[in-house]
Each structure stands twice: as structure tokens, then as C-alpha cells.
Amino acid sequence: MTEPGSHEFDVVSSETVYSGAILALRLDEVRMPGGRTARREVVEHHGAVAVVARDDRGRIAMIRQYRHPLGRRLLELPAGLLDGGPDERPLDAARRELAEEVDLAAQRWSVLVDLAVSPGFTDEALRVYLAEGLSALPAAEREHEEADLVVEWVSLADAVALALGGEIVNATAAAGVLALAAADATGARLRTVDADWPDQPTDLVARKGS
């Protein structure tokens, strides 16, 4: 038995049991401490980006959007998948989502927080940006659920209260709002847009490109 914290969790075998448009399901047999193996289900997913877009009045652009798995509309941040191919930069995806969902562009960008969405079963990870120096763009054409979304401008203080009160339940939105409040309160220096992102998912993109 190795010392705790030193075991190498080698993958003995791997099988793909499903591959769809936005995710794949992989079954890995992984070597555990003590020599036995255990099966682990891994959902491969695109990475994603989200944007906390703050205007000169300190308000955050949020969207209220229908989410079918929950069967109701949620208050969220502009966000989207990194599904533009292996050469798409996360910052470019964030700019695209800000334009497509809330008709905005931004002059100043920084990395607010990185998230591993649910690391117990999926490699999905998400980078949340802070965007400031906002300007309006022509209205984008939207379809499916996005055709029904509503843009709401919320003060940071109100957004924090909504997160703590259980009104903002989207994990990305809650994390982004609370991270910005913490950064403002502590004066923390945010990372630049080229900061390393070691958990950015690549398996699904590589699968679709092969």
C-alpha cells in the first residue's frame, strides 16, 4: 500500500459506450490503492465559458433562461460551450457569448474564477470572465431557448443576496457573483486572460476531430 496522497491512479482499460453531440460516456477501469481496480464512469463534455459583464453603474448583465432539465427559468450569466473547434480560444468564445446573448461588447477582460463543474463524474470545466467597459451591439438573432431569454441588469449587492437566498441556483452564476463580490471586498488582483487553465477539457474535442 502506498502512502496516502502518492498513489498513481492508472487507467487499466477504457471503453466508450456513448458519443453524442455535446457529451460522451466513457467507462474506465482504474487501479486503486492496494492493487484492485474499480470502474469509473466519466462524462466527457465540452469546456464552457461565462461572463460577469459589469457596467459603469456597477450592474451585472444577467439572463433569465428556460432550462428543460429543471423545467423552469433560471437567472444566469451569459455563457456557452467551447464548441468552436480545437483552435477556439476561451476568450473568443466568451466574447461571442456576450454578443449573442446580451448584445454587448467589452473593452476590458480578466479571469474571475475557474470551476470544475462536477469532478466526481465529468471532466466539464468552466472559466468565468469579468468584462468591463461595455458597449451595445446590434441585436443578435436567437433561436430555441435563447429566443425566449430576458436580459436583467442586477446590482452586485442584489445578485449576492439572490445567490445566498436561493434565487440564483445556477452554479456558474452563483460562483461568478460571489467571486466578484469577494474580489471587490479584498482588492484581489484578477488573472489575465492568458492565465493557464490546466483543467480545460480536451477529450471530447479531440474525439470529434478524429
How would you portray this structure in words?
The chain has 210 residues and is α+β, with helices and mostly antiparallel strands. The protein has two domains: 10-44; 47-193, Nucleoside Triphosphate Pyrophosphohydrolase (Alpha-Beta Complex), CATH 3.90.79. The protein is 21% helix and 39% strand. It contains four helices and ten strands. It has a four-stranded mixed sheet. A three-stranded antiparallel sheet has the order 1-2-3, with no helix packed on it. The protein has a three-stranded antiparallel sheet with strand order 6-5-10. The chain is globular and about 60 Å long.
Main traits of this protein?
single chain, 210 residues, alpha+beta, Nucleoside Triphosphate Pyrophosphohydrolase, 2 domains, four-stranded mixed β-sheet, three-stranded antiparallel β-sheet, 4 helices
- Second-tier CATH architecture of the largest domain: Alpha-Beta Complex
N- and C-termini, Cα separation: 39 Å
The structural domain count equals 2
Low-confidence stretches: none
Enumerate how many helices there are, as a single number.
Answer: 4
Describe the largest sheet: 4 strands, mixed
> What is the overall shape?
globular
Write the layout of secondary structure elements.
Layout: E1 11-19, E2 23-31, E3 37-45, E4 48-53, E5 59-67, E6 72-76, E7 79-81, H1 90-102, E8 104-116, E9 125-136, E10 150-155, H2 156-164, H3 171-186, H4 203-209
Parallel strand pairs: 4-9
Antiparallel strand pairs: 1-2, 2-3, 4-7, 5-6, 5-10, 8-9
Give the gist of this structure.
The chain is an alpha+beta fold. 21% of the residues lie in helices and 39% in strands.
